[in-house]
Amino acid sequence: MISDDLLGNDAHWAFGTDFEDPLAGVDTTVPDGVDPASLARYCLMLGDDALVLSQRLSEWCSRAPDLEEDIALANVALDLLGQARLLLARAAAADPSVVPALPDDSPVPAEDALAFFRSPAEFRNVTMAELPNGDFAEAITRLLLLSTCRLAEFESMAAHPDAVLAAVAAKGRKELAYHRDFAARWFVTLARGTAESRRRVLDALDGLWAFWPELDAPAGVEVVLDQVFAAADVSRPEVAPARGLGRECVHTEALTDLLAEMQSVARAHPRGLW
Amino acid sequence: MTVTETELAEHFEATVARGDRIEPRDWMPEAYRKTLIRQIAQHAHSEIIGMQPEGNWISRAPSLRRKAILLAKVQDEAGHGLYLYSACETLGTARRELTEKLLSGKQKYSSIFNYPTPSYADVGTIGWLVDGAAICNQVPLCRTSFGPYGRAMIRICKEESFHQRQGYELLMTMMRGTEEQRAMVQESVDRFWWPALMMFGPPDDASPHTGQSMAWGIKRNTNDELRQKFVDMTVPQARALGVTLPDPELRWNSERRAHDFGEPDWDEFWAVVEGNGPCNAERLDRRRRAHEDGAWVRDAAVAFAEEGAR
User: Fold this and answer.
1) Which residues of chain A make contact with B71, given a CB cutoff of 8 A?
2) Nearest to B120 by CA among B171, B163, B196
3) What are the two backbone dihedrals, phi and then psi, of residue B252, each rounded to the nearest 5 degrees?
4) Per the CB < 8 Å rule, is B307 touching A192?
5) Low-confidence residues of chain B, pLDDT below 70?
6) Is B258 helix (H, G, I), strand (E, B) or coil?
7) Across the strands, what pairs with B146?
8) In the list A5, A244, B80, B206, which could disulfide-bond A214, CB 3.0-4.6 Å?
9) Residue A227: is its pLDDT beyond 70?
10) B169, A6 Cβ separation under 8 angstroms
11) Which one of B52, B65, B172 has the shortest CB-CB distance to A62?
């Protein structure tokens, strides 16, 4: 009987009914010498970057220039969402005081409390992640800049004393390398495609470059970027830096709008089971 | 000695009669090719337009787990569209031409996607009822006579079954939640039940293509047979879920060993097919806009590839 199968929770069901906690079964004890509060703060920074950029990328779903790009952008969004879930859950386990207070009998898991019940002034993502979507050139350029930085961050994070974070980094590195390569290929294609695509990609780079200093790129990142720029025959823009204070929880109105939409159903049913 | 058209036709008929596959390089009657292109293209377009009603909820999914499930599902639909357009290309029609026919309204997509999705429960209901109906339609197509279509359908059916379970699991979870959530599920099932029954197409006596398609092994069951199968499958699932189906005539007929059920509103069906459903214009507009907005990107990719080839 099909209904019996449907009610069961067999192993073929990847998102099984018991899959509530992305860190289920993982030892989340914070190792000696690591400050739980700063660990949680670091996880929120990286988790919020991933969550907010994933949200922006998923807005492309059913709107991309072709089916292949629709699938690729959704794939990147899914990878980032997966990273966000692990990092938010890690933050909550390391320092439960970062999780918004909900009623004792609330069914909302910690990762969702952090995603859906924090206000914009509690998010730590960089400004570049939250900017409203532009055209495809803007999406590609933003992904190139953010994934190049994030990949370098994850490479050093793979040696983090916290084993959970090190494991998140080890898994995420492969994903981020794909994201960067996908973005770099399209960046070069657009820069050397038609006059219009070149104009659009240069405009996108000019617009985003003001937010580059806020990313505080790890060493070596600019060398990689310069290679991509050289292949694209593009030079680094000379743009005055914008006042980006996302890490200090100061955000643009774009984040307020993004969260209002993202959080609307969860907040309308605070005791709902999903 | 040249092979005559009659001999080719006999060979084709014999292959279909044996239940073997016709492959792209095989000779086939022009009308068979046309029918397949029409059917596969309509299916491909349905996958692509079908991304929208549920995709509208990705940004608002109420938990990160549900967001991941939904995004992955909508991405699968884009993938199904790709396989099906590729199957169609083996018949000599480019994806670009098919896209143009979709956008100009010359080719159709499943009318179910012209209904709105005003509630998050609709994500679950679409998985359960709409994907469930699609599976009933599509499982027999895994044995369809045209090879590339049949093989695409095998993969699609596996993924669709997965989606159906996820949808049903969402509804099950919501039914265990608050009173408000249970009401959302019932309201959504009430809206989608009849349109889901219409997904099997008009009654057999008003389905002009069925006879020939069955003879060619493109179609394996009639619309009414599949509709009955779907109803019989769904009734116990609804009971397990704790929802009612909005049909006062629905009851078990022990003589037929099947459920009797009411007649869908065929006037509504034809109105939606003709373009007058609640969301026809909106769905096509979104697709058209995405296609137009992406034109410069596709041009850039072609120009870059040509530059590399020089």
Assistant:
1) 58, 61, 74, 77-78, 81
2) B171
3) -75, 130
4) yes
5) 1
6) strand
7) B22
8) A244
9) yes
10) yes
11) B52
CATH of the domain at A211: 1.20.1260.10
Q: How confident is the model at residue A19 (pLDDT cuts 50, 70, 90)?
A: very low
Radius of gyration of chain B (CA): 21
Is residue A175, in this structure, part of any structural domain at all? yes
List % helix, strand, coil for chain B (3-state, nearest 5): 70, 5, 25
Per-residue pLDDT, B21: 94
How many domains are there within chain A? 1
Q: Does residue A273 lie within any of the structural domains?
A: no
- What's the CA gap between B307 and A191, in Å, rounded? 12
The H or E element that residue B253 is part of is: strand B251-253
pLDDT tens for each residue of A38-72: 999 999 999 999 999 999 999 999 999 999 999 99
Nearest one of B192, B152, B191, B202 to B47, comparing CA atoms: B152
Q: Give CA–CA dist A186/B98, Å, rounded.
A: 25
pLDDT score of A10: 46
Identify whether A15 is part of a domain: no
Structure tokens at A28: 């989340």
Q: Is the confidence at residue A4, as pLDDT, over 60? A: no
Q: What are phi and psi of B31, to 5 degrees?
A: -70, -35
The pLDDT tens digits of the residues spanning A86-125 come to 999 999 999 999 999 998 889 999 999 999 999 999 999 9
* pTM to 2 decimal places: 0.94
DSSP, residue by residue, B196-240: HHHTT-S-GGG-TTHHHHHHTTS--S-HHHHHHHHHHHHHHHHHH
User: Could you give the CA distance from residue B213 to residue B146 in angstroms, rounded to a whole number?
Assistant: 12
Whether A207 is covered by a domain: the verdict is yes
Cβ neighbours of B307 in A, within 8 Å: 192
The pLDDT score that the predictor gives to residue B240 is 97
- CA dist., res. A128 & res. A52, Å (int): 10
Residue B301 C-alpha, separation from nearest chain A C-alpha, in angstroms: 6
- With CB atoms and an 8 Å threshold, state whether B85 touches A67: yes
What ipTM did this prediction achieve?
A: 0.94
Contacts of B162 (CB under 8 A, 6+ apart): A13
Q: Which domain holds residue A214?
A: 36-264
Cα separation of A165 and B228, whole Å?
Answer: 53
Q: What is the mean pLDDT of chain A?
A: 92
Confidence of residue A18 (pLDDT cuts 50, 70, 90): very low
Rounded to a whole number of angstroms, the distance from the CA of A198 to the nearest CA of chain B is: 9
Distance of alpha carbon A76 from alpha carbon A73, whole angstroms:
5
Chain A CB contacts of B286 under 8 Å are 62-63
Kindly indicate the confidence band of residue A1, based on its pLDDT and cuts at 50, 70 and 90. Answer: very low
Long-range contacts at B264-270 (CB < 8 A, ≥ 24 apart): B264/B194, B264/B197, B264/B198, B265/B194, B266/B202, B266/B203, B266/B206, B268/B194, B268/B198, B269/B111, B269/B198, B269/B202
